[in-house]
Structures are given as C-alpha cells and as structure tokens.
Amino acid sequence: MRAAAFLAIASAAIPAAAFGQIPPSEALSATDSRLFHQELQRVEGQLETAGDKCTVMYALARTWASGGQYREALETLKKVAALRVGLDPSRDEFFAKLRGTNEFEQLLKQIREDNPPVFTSHLAFTIPEADLFPEGIAYDPVRNQFFLGSTFKHKIIRCTRAGVCRPLVKDAQDGLDQVLGLKVDPKDGTVWAASNRDAESGLFHYTVPSGNLMGKYTLSRRSGRHLFNDLAINSSGDVFVTDTQAGTVYWVSRATDHLEVFDPRLKVTAANGIAISSDGRKLYVAGFPDGITVVDLAARSFRAMEHPAGLCLATIDGLAFSNGDLIAIQNGIMANRVVRYRLSRNLNAIEGFDVLERGNPLFDGITTGAAGNGKFYFMANTQLDKVVDGKITPGVKLNPIKILETPLPTARR
Questions:
Q1: What is the end-to-end Cα distance of the chain in Å, rounded?
Q2: Residue 31's CB: how many other CB atoms inside 10 A?
Q3: Burial of 296: CB neighbours in 10 Å, binned 0-12, 13-18, 19+
Q4: Residue 42's beta-bridge partner residues?
Q5: pLDDT tens digits, residue range 38-54?
C-alpha cells in the first residue's frame, strides 16, 4: 500500500500558491490554536524517542503547515533537506500553499540535485493488462512464476517469465476484493493474499495452479478499524500480516490455523511492509516513527532497528529479505527508490545501504517487489493514483505494467 499517510493529521487540498513569497501565517481560533499546539508538542516529543528521527522532523514540518504557519513549515523543511536523506515534499498536499514560492522551489531544486537518478535494473517482462492496477507481486523461484493482485479487478493473475498471464483467482471469487499483499508459501508453493472491502479485511489462501480456496480468515471492519496490507511467511507456513489501520501485526499459526493478533504489545503506527529472515527468527515491520521495528519471534521482543544517520526509513512500502539484506521500496514522501539495507551479522541493525534504483522515468507508482534467485523484481508503474473512489480518472492514459529486475548479491558478505 502506498505509504503516504503516516500521520493522524488530516488536511484538505489547498490551491497552489500563485505568488513568489511565502504566504503569511493564518490566524487560528483559540480552540484551533490550542489543538494545534498540542499536536505540535506531541510531534516534537517524538523526536526524543523515535527510531527514525528524519521522518518525525518531516512530520513536524507537516504539522506547522497544517496549522497555517508556513514560514515555520518551510524552515523545518530546510532542516529536513539539509539531512540529504531523500525526503521529498514536492508531491505533498500539506505544502500546497508553498508551491510556486521562490524559497520552496529552490528547496525542491536542491533536493533533486541531492537525489540524482540511479539505474541498476532492466525490463524483466511486460503485462499488457494496463488496467490491472496491481499493488502486490509475489514470486515463486522454484517454478519461476509470478503472481500479481488487482486492486481494481479484485483478482489474482499468474504470469510466466515471458509475461504470459492467466487468471489464478477470478474477479470477486470467494469474496476477494481489493488485493494488496501477496506471498508464495515456501513450504508448498500455495499463494496467500491480503484483501480488504467495506465490510471486512481478510487473508485468502489458494492452491496453485487450480486457484481453489484453501482457507479464508477475516475480521469485520464494522467492529473496528482494520486494513490488511502486506504479508510474510516463514518456512513452517506461519503467516504474518500488517494491519495498517490498527497499527499491529496479525498472524495465522500453522499449528492453530486461527487468525489473531501476534502480540498485543506490538504497536506500529501505519504498519506496512513486512519481511522475515530466512532462518525464521526475525520479523521486520515498517511503520512510523521507528522506520523498521525488528521482532524476535521466539522471545516476543521488539525494538526500533538501528541504522546509519544518513539513512531515512520513511514510507517503506515493499520489504523483502534476501541473503542477509533487506530490500525496501520507499515511496510517498521519499524520492521514490529501491534500496538495499545491509544488515549486521545478528540481523538486528542496518550497517549500510545502497540505492539500487531511483528516478527511473518508468516510475508511476512503485509499491512492492519480490526477491528470488539472486534478483529483485518490482513493478515500475502500478498507476494506482489513476483510480479514485473505484473509478479510473477520465482522460488518463494507462500503460502496460512493466516488471523490472535488478541483481542482488547471492551470498552473504
């Protein structure tokens, strides 16, 4: 799922600035001023404890802008840009009133210069179905086949390496709706999908290649806020899914075959990308404000993942584990990119990182990817922004889906 909304602050779209100077601060009522300063104090407090301080500083700039304090918002953005970690406010509606002003445009120019294009990928194959609007992709390295879910057509397709695709699960079969996360179970090659509709969030388990439903695990969205997002599966067949709205992780244990919260103490605001180490001991959960929370599954302990000061872990959507590394897709408020995080020997910390792809002209909504056989496969152009309220925006041009691949180290350093 696109990871743009990591704050509890809401803001309506504001017309772009039509002048060259920063607009004056907006006057707030006594009540609004009190609420604004409470929120400001809350976010400032997170700077003391957050594992990913760069993201919280960006959130602070958003808070200033949400209160109509544009000079303070810009000055905070300047501090963010000075970190040179890839945070990019150019598409953020919180800063709509700063667009077109001299200082903001100069800031964006500097951010573009600090984040030049990086290319390590090439085209793996093309899916002609331009209106698929996929969010999740899974790869079966044993059978060398791919699975993509559709948020628009409520189905799952199965594709060969040559891009020949056929339905695995048909539109709305078994109550399947918007498909987000997809994963192949390494134990038996079956496919798990996270799906959401108005009434419920659910995990769906399907056979391959028949597409028969093996199991369905649901939560009512009427009784609480839920949004099942992305999945991770260990070699035993235990399935973990992030619940973005509830800010936690659910799981289906192979032993119990029951959907439940993995640990009520584990709270990850805007939980999104999730991955599991190859030894099955560590679970990695992306969210705010810690960037990545590393979970020791046996000890049921968790903590913010340590990482270099020059790395920002904001808005991680796709997350995959490969040969002692984490591969992340960052979108939203980041300069959209694919990054390899080089982990410590104990897999608890990030020691370094490499940007694998950034600024590719094919990018039109990168979300998730899948690692296997020494490569990372990811969708360059999901085009998800071209669907609003379940309808394709009139007049937009849709393009075939491009699947890119980039090489990964095949052995641990």
A1: 31
A2: 8
A3: middle
A4: none
A5: 999 999 999 999 999 99
- Helices 70-82 and 102-114, packing angle to 10 deg: 20
Domain ranges of the chain: 30-114, 122-407
For 13, the 3-state DSSP assignment is coil
- Look up residue 344 and give its two tokens: 């410590």
pLDDT by residue (tens digit) across 92-112? 999 999 999 999 999 999 999
Cross-strand bridge partners of residue 284: 275, 294
CA distance 379 to 202: 24
d(CA 395, CA 384): 15
Task: Assign domain 122-407 one CATH number from 2.120.10.30, 3.40.50.360, 3.40.50.2300, 3.40.920.10.
Answer: 2.120.10.30
Sequence-separated (6 or more) residues with CB below 8 Å from residue 291: 51, 52, 55, 304, 305, 307, 312, 313, 314, 316
Neighbours of 68 (CB within 10 A): 18
Residue 91 burial (CB count, 10 A):
12
